[in-house]
Request: fold
Amino acid sequence: MVLVVLALVLWGAGWWLNTRLAEGPHSGTSAVRLAIPLIFGATVLVMWELVVRGLNVPLVILPAPSLIVVRFADSIPILWADFVQTFVKGALSGYLIGCGAAFLMAVAVDRSEFLRLGLLPVGNFVAALPIVGTAPILVMWFGFDWQSKAAVVVVMVFFPMLVNTVAGLRETTAMQRDLMETYAASYWQAFFKLRLPAAMPFIFNGLKISTTLALIGAIVAEFFGSPTLGMGFRISTSVGQLALDMVWAEIVVAALAGTLFYGAVALIERYVTFWHPSQRR
Reply:
């Protein structure tokens, strides 16, 4: 119980420190904005360690962070192979194909009222389909390797990206479009000089949403059939073996990959849409 009491004291100290930093005179600086989540995360990890050891929580219920770190360090070759199989081959390839196809389709929808009225409602219906229903079908169609995982990702990211891009391309006002017409601009000239730049915040919104959907789709698809590697395969088999430390190690890899992927897209957005009010400081 001493460790549990120490964990509660640590939580109170971390809360007090973060409150002082958030409400202090330097709360708007980059250093403070970075320090607050780091302190919060470190506090949670140390509390987790102390509570698990203080209450003697079994490994099959919740492993301590120190055990997860040891398993992570001992399994780097396995984790790397799983990362390549799931993220690079499955999630990233499906993300690029799905988002690229959605952008091209959005341009076609923008030029065709028939497609806009006919495809978008169907897209909303398909986007609402549960992945646990579509993933097994796509695995049977495309096989058990990464191609079926990429197909699942394509289905998951296509329609969110399509809807956001179509909304962005229609963002310009009638006065702006009339101004381009007075300059005798063609459709494609107005597209590249007016409508596409105006749609960039919407496009990047779809890209950021799709980063998380891509990784989730690739991992979940591996539960329905995969080779003897991949994050989803490893999590499924490790749960059956009661190796919860390995499960958490894979979760750490997935969290890091998803965070870095989202951050990379957000960083690109910051430089592409520097003119947008959301990027101003």
Summary: The chain has a mean pLDDT of 83. The CA atoms of residues 19 and 185 lie 55 Å apart. The radius of gyration is 23 Å.
